[in-house]
Amino acid sequence: MTKIGHVEARTLAETYGTPLFAYDEEVLRQKMQEYRDHFQSDSLKTGVVYASKAFCCMAMIRLIREYDMYLDVVSGGELYTALKAGFEPERIFFHGNNKTPQELRMALENKVGTIVVDNESEARLLAEMVSEYGSNVHVLLRVNPGIEAHTHKYIVTAHVDSKFGIAMMNEEEVVRVINILRNCEGIVFDGLHVHIGSQIFAKEAFTSTVEKLFAFAGHLYDAYGIPVRTADLGGGFAARYTDKDAPIPTAEVCETILAACTEANSRLSCPVERVLIEPGRSIVAEAGYTLYTIGALKQTPNKLYAFVDGGMSDNIRPALYQAEYDAVIDGREEEPAAANYTIAGKCCESGDILIESIALPKAQPGDLLVMKTTGAYGYSMASHYNRMLMPAVVFAQDGTSRTVIRRETYDDLIALEVTL
Ligand code: LLP
């Protein structure tokens, strides 16, 4: 029998219905605490910024606030959610490669602490707006270190065509943009931001990034007198989806990064003062489960399908990235496997497969399938394809559970329609 936050999965399914996103709040808290405990240094100021895109709702943001973390938002919608949750605006970092003038205005009016500028036209627009409104804001510039990391591998490439940031190798452009920012009264230029990818397992990807970024910071100071006081290293820390995944433990990755920063700093004439990281997935992924009810079973010449009452509408990751997941049939976790099942959703799309092949005991209609590690980029990337309803989201802890997002209704679905 599977328990989530010491509540039986079956009880959650009976109480709230399926499909259901259920988070183990104890695991969420433990992950946040780990980052808080281990991203600490004697020689540097540190900060952990939760990348809310991984899972954004007011309940989650309130937890982040409890743990004294900072918050990364990338849109007016994420910003609105954070403000409504009572998150301190000065602790918010506003990212994104194409913030609209309305979003920038919203950030300035609400006194968002830091804006992470992506490109020259955004720098110009922000400088104009700051001067016009007489506002004050801290700014980081996103640069692209030419390191791209994907899952187990990391590659160093020129990668000049990324849509994010300005390539470090375009030094002139970087300096020009920093000067636009530094010449604007009201903007405090704090430093640089990088983010090299997601679901990264290789320590070297992080240490190489630190080395490159700090060396670049040193060069900006020595050659142009530009002090880089803050280095924001982005997110990308892996989560464990299946037995094949072995993420670097949080304590180890934090210590490795900070050791690399201290070492790199010792070579700089103007040392970096503050280091930030922006974990998203690694905080929420493993705490999250999706509960589905198995409906029809279908044997084709080569496949045995178990259909569930959700699918790509609540988890696009298998279809989009061939992401792999693990699952159990509740109550039969210890039974030997009887067959290899393909777990498919109910959307009208052949690619709506949640798990391509998984060995499970004999499944029956009505069984509860518990899919694990669905806490990151599941709900946040959910869609209304086929007018599927957004599942409810619940948090469970110490044997009790609470709804944090109610299930959508059919009336919600048509609520935006203007009928004449
Ligand atoms: N900071 C920045 C600037 C980012 O762009 C991201 C993620 C993060 C932090 C957090 O990265 P994390 O720690 O979660 O890896 N939808 C994809 C993941 C896209 C990540 C985009 N940026 C997926 O489902 O795998």
Fraction of residues in H or I helices: 25-40%
The CATH C-level name of the largest domain is: Alpha Beta
CATH topology of the largest domain: TIM Barrel
Strand content: 25-35%
Short description:
With 420 residues, the protein is an alpha/beta fold. 30% of the residues lie in helices and 27% in strands.
Question: Could you walk me through the main structural features you see in this protein, from its secondary elements to its overall organization?
Answer:
This protein is 30% helix and 27% strand. It has helices spanning 9-16, 25-38, 58-66, 76-84, 101-109, 120-133, 171-182, 203-224, 250-265, 281-284, 317-321, 410-414; strands at 3-4, 7-8, 20-24, 45-51, 70-73, 92-94, 114-117, 137-144, 147-150, 153-156, 166-167, 187-193, 197-198, 230-232, 274-277, 288-299, 304-308, 327-329, 339-344, 353-360, 368-372, 392-397, 400-405. It folds into 2 domains: 39-282, Alanine racemase (TIM Barrel, Alpha-Beta Barrel); 288-413, Lyase, Ornithine Decarboxylase, Chain A, domain 1, CATH 2.40.37.10. Strands 3, 16, 17, 18, 19, 20, 21, 22 and 23 form a 9-stranded mixed β-sheet that branches. By secondary structure, the protein is α/β, with parallel strands linked by helices. The chain binds ligand LLP. Ligand LLP binds next to α10 and α11.
List its traits.
420 residues; eight-stranded parallel β-barrel; globular; binds ligand LLP; TIM Barrel; single chain
Task: Produce the secondary structure layout.
Elements: E1 3-4, E2 7-8, H1 9-16, E3 20-24, H2 25-38, E4 45-51, H3 58-66, E5 70-73, H4 76-84, E6 92-94, H5 101-109, E7 114-117, H6 120-133, E8 137-144, E9 147-150, E10 153-156, E11 166-167, H7 171-182, E12 187-193, E13 197-198, H8 203-224, E14 230-232, H9 250-265, E15 274-277, H10 281-284, E16 288-299, E17 304-308, H11 317-321, E18 327-329, E19 339-344, E20 353-360, E21 368-372, E22 392-397, E23 400-405, H12 410-414
Parallel strand pairs: 3-22, 4-5, 4-15, 5-6, 6-7, 7-8, 8-11, 8-12, 9-13, 12-14, 14-15, 17-19
Antiparallel strand pairs: 1-2, 3-16, 9-10, 16-17, 16-21, 18-21, 19-20, 22-23
Helix pairs in contact: 2-9, 5-6, 6-7, 8-9
The structure holds ligand LLP.
Residues 51, 53-54, 72, 95, 195, 198-199, 234-237, 278-282, 317, 321, 377 line the site of ligand LLP.
